[in-house]
Amino acid sequence: MISAHPITETSLHHSASDELVIEGLVRGYVRIATEATDLFAVSVTEALNLPASAAERDRRIRQDDLAEWVKWLRVSRSEVTEADALALVNAVRTALNDLVRIPHLSRHAEFPDELVACSMNALLNTPMPSARSGRRRDE
Question: How high is the pLDDT of residue 89?
Answer without folding.
Answer: 98
